[in-house]
From TrEMBL, chain A:
CDD domains: ABC_MJ0796_LolCDE_FtsE. Residues 14-242 form the ABC transporter domain. Keywords: ATP-binding, Nucleotide-binding, Transport. This is ABC transporter ATP-binding protein. Pfam families: ABC_tran. One of its GO terms (cellular component) is membrane protein complex. It comes from Kribbella albertanoniae. One of its GO terms (molecular function) is transmembrane transporter activity. It comes from the Bacteria.
From TrEMBL, chain B:
One of its GO terms (cellular component) is plasma membrane. This is FtsX-like permease family protein. The keyword Magnesium does not apply. GO terms for molecular function: transmembrane transporter activity. It comes from Kribbella albertanoniae. Belongs to the ABC-4 integral membrane protein family. The chain crosses the membrane at residues 16-37, 158-178, 206-228, 248-269, 297-317, 323-344, 379-398, 594-617, 644-670, 676-699. Residues 158-276, 595-708 form the ABC3 transporter permease C-terminal domain. It holds the Pfam family FtsX. Its main location: membrane. It is found in: Cell membrane. Keywords: Cell membrane, Membrane, Transmembrane, Transmembrane helix.
Amino acid sequence: MPLLTADRAASAAVRVQELTRTYDAGGQPVTALDGIDATFVRGTFTAVMGPSGSGKSTLLQTAAGLDRPTSGRVFVGDTEMTRLSEAALTRLRRTKIGFVFQMFNLIGALNVEENITLPLRLSGARPDRRWLAEVTHRVGVTNQLHRRPAELSGGQQQRVAIARALAIRPDVVFADEPTGALDSHTASAVLELLRSIVDDHGQTIIMVTHDPVAASYADRVVTLADGRIVADRNQREAEAVA
Amino acid sequence: MTGIALRLLRHRPGSVLATLIALIAGVTILTSMGALVESGLRPLPEPQQYANAEIVVAKRDLTITGKQLGDPYTATVQLPERGSLPAGLADELRKVPGVENVAGNADALTLQASDRVAVEKVAASAGAQVYTGNDRVLVERPDIAEARGLLIEVGGAFGGYVVMLVMFVVAGTIGLSIRSRRRDLALLRATAATPGQVRRMLMAEAAILAVAGSVVGVPAGLLASRWLGEQLVARGFVPADYGLSRGLLAAPAAVLLIVLVALGSALLASRKLSGIRPAEALSQIAVEPARLSKVRLGFGLVALTGAVSSSAVSVGAGGQAALAGAVSMLYLFVLAVALLAPWINGITARYLAPVLRAGWGNSGYLAAKNLAANARGGATVLTALVLSIGFGGSVWFLQDNVERQTVQQLKSGTLAQYTVLTPGEVSVEKLGRIPGVEAVTPMRQTAVIVKVLDTLEVVPAQAIDPAQAKATLDLKVRKGELAAVGPDSIAVSATQAASRGWKVGDEASLWLGDGTPKRLRVAAIYERGLGFGDVVLSTATFGQPPTKLLIRATPDAVPALKAAIGQSATLIPSEQATAGVSKDLAISAWLNKLLITVMIGYAGLAAANTMTVAALARRRELAVLQLAGVTTRQLKRMVHAEQAGLLGVSVLIGGVIAAVTLTAVVYALTGGAVPYVPLAGVLAILGGATLIAMGTTIVPIARLLRQSSLAAAGTRE
C-alpha cells in the first residue's frame, strides 16, 4: 500500500487529515467517516469505491466542502477549507472546485449555456469565451447551447454538467456516481471524456462510484468500508508492473 | 441575481400565479382600505355659513387630559349632541384684549381676534373649542365631522386587521413557494451560490412579484375604492359633497407595504433555509429536517392560552368594537394553530390512519403516511383552511347575531302599541288625558361619553321620562327599579355595568351627549342594552326634546291621538317602528358585512392558493410513487384521502375556534349563551371549504399525473 510522503503532499490538489463525520440518526450517533487520511495528487483520476453506507459519498461531500466534517481538516491546494465561513467556503468552491452529480444537477429554468456559466455568473466573473468554446466543444454540446435540460438525453445532461464543472478551470473536479443513471454505452462515453480531460489537461478528478467498470478508468482506486480506507491501489502503476 | 430570479420564476408558472394572485388581491384590498382612511384624513371643504368669520367658538368635541401610569395623555371625541355655550361666554370673550365683533348665539360664536391663544384659553374654560380655517366647517356640518369619524374608525379598526391578514397570507404563500423549491436551492448552493446570494435572489424574486402584483392590484384597488365611495354616499354614510379620496396616496402606500411584506417574508423563509446543506442537492430525496423546535411549541401554547383567556376580555360595546374583539381573538387562535400545526398534523395522522385505511384502502394507508411524514409542510395548508373556516364561521354570524338580538330586544322590550315619530312640540300631558291612553313615554335617542382607561368612548343611550315607563318599556330590569331613575341617577345595561364595574348604588362619572360632565348614581341594571342603548337617563337630566313617544293605548284612542299630534308628527304601530329600526340596522351593518366578506374571501383565496402550490410541489413525489407501481387511480384516491383527512381536521379545529369565538362575543354582547347560527350558513361554509380543499388539489394533481412520470422523477421538483 503506497503511503503518502511529504514531497508528494506538496503537489496535492486535495488533502484530508483525520476526517470524521458522525450523524445523529434518531438519537443514535452513526459514524460515516472514522478518521480518514488521504492525499489526492494533481493531475490524477481517483475512484472512491465501497459498499452502500461505507462513507464514500460523505467523504466526497466533506472533501468538496458541501458538508462539514465533525472533526479533522480538509485542504484544497494550500487553503484549509474547514476553517472557512459558509460564504467564503462557497466562494472557494465556485472558483476552485467543479462538481458532477449523479443526476438532477442542472437548473431546469436555465438553458445549457446558462447552466454552464452559472458558477461564473454567481462569482461575478466574466466568462472566458475561448475557454468556454473549447470546453463545450470538448464535451460535445456545442450544438445544444440554447436548449433546456429537459430536452436533452441523460448522457447529454451529464456532458453539460461536466462542461459546467470545467468552465471555472477548477483545481479539482468531484464526481458523485456520474454514470449511475446512464446506460452502459453512454456511461463509457462519459467516462472516456473524464479520462481524456485528465490526460490532456492535467485535470484532477475524484469520482465516487460503486461500479468496478467505472473505477477501471481511474489511476487510483481507494476503497472504503465502515468509514475507513480498507484498500488503496494505484492501478496505472500496477498495470505498468504487470 | 435578478436575471436568474426572473428565469426561475418563468419556469414555475403555477406557484408564481398563486403568489401573484395573493399579492394582487392584497394590493387591491389595501389600496381601497387605504382610500377610506385617506378620505377620513383629507382636508375639509370650505365653510359656507362661517365663510366670513375669522374664528368660530363652539362646543363640538370633548377633550380630556390626564395621566395614565405616569404618562400624560389627551383624548378627544366628537360630541354626539350639539353642545351649547354658556350664556356669559360672549361677554368673557369681549374682555380678551384684541377681540372684536363677537356675535352669535348659544350654538356658536364668531369673532375676530389678534391673540388666538388667549381666546382658546377662555373657550377651554367653558369646555368650548376654537375653530379656524377649514375646521370651521365642522361647526356647521356635523354630518361631515361624523363621516370623517366613521372613515377613520373603520380604517383604523378594520384596516389593521386587514393589513395583518394580507401579511399573513402573503408571508404564507411566499414561504411555501420557497420551501417547495428546497432542492433547487440546494442545487444552487452546491453550484456555488453563497447563502447571501440565494437570499438576495429570493428577495429579488419576491420584490419582482410584488411590483408585478401592484401593476394589476393598484388599478383594481382604485376602481374598488371608487365603487366603495359611491356606495358610501348612496347609503348615507358620507354626505355627497364630502369629496371622498380615490386613493391616490393610499395606492403608493399599499404598494410600499406589500413590497416590504413580500421582502420580509422572503427574508424570513430564506433564513429558515439557511440550514440547507448543499449536499442535499446530491441526495435523491430532499427531506426536510425533522427537528421541531421547543420554542415553536412554547409560543404556540402561549398563543393558545392567550386566545382562550382573551375571550373574556376582548369584547367591547357596540358592533364595531365587538367585531374587532372577535377578529383579534380569532387571530390569536389561528396563530396558535399555525405554530402548533406540525404537532396537530402529526397527532391526527396517527389517529386518522385507521380511518383513512378503512375508507380508502391502500391509498388511505399511503395518505396517512404522507400526512405523518409531511406534518410540517402540511402546516401551511392546515392553517389556511382553519383560517378561512374560523373566519367564515364566526364574524359573519356575529354580525347577524348582533342585528337579530337588537331587533329581538326592541320587539320584546316595547310594550307600547304605538309610536309617534318626530313628535316636535306635542304635549305629552295632553295625549295622556285622551281616553284609552294608558301611558305615554317620551324618549330621545342620544349617547353619553365614558372614560375608559385613557380614551373616551361614546355609549348609546336613551333619555326617557321614567314616570310611566313601566307600562311602555320592558328593559328586563335585573336589579333596582327603572322608575327610580331621576335627575341624579341612571340605569345601565348589564354589559356596560360589567365592563365598567358599576353596581346599583354606585356613582358613575360620565358626560352627557352635549359634553356636560355628570356624576350620576346607578339606580337600575337591565339586560336589553342592545335594543335600548347601554344607558338610560331621565329627561330631567338631559332636557333635549324627545325623538319619539311610546304610547300604550287601546285602538279606539288612535283617531284622537292622530288629531292631537298634528300634521308634522306621525303615529305608527310599534311593530312598524321596529321594522324601520331593523332596516336602519341593516344599512349601517352594510359596511361591516362588506369588510367581513372581503376578509373571508381573502382567507378562502389564501387557502386555495396554498393548496395549489402545495399540490404542484409534489410532482416528484408522485412520479416516484408511480414508478414504484402505484397506479394513477390509486394516486388520485390517495390525494382524495389526504384532503379528506386534512379537511376533517380543519373543519373540526376551525369549527371549534369559530364556536368559541362566536359564543364568547355573543354572550358578552347579549347575555345569550347560544348564538344563532343558520343551517344554510353552516352548509355554505362547509361546502365552500370542501370545494376549495378538493378543487385546488385535485385539478393540479390530475394535471401532474398526465405528465410522464419518468421525466418528472428525473428532473427538478
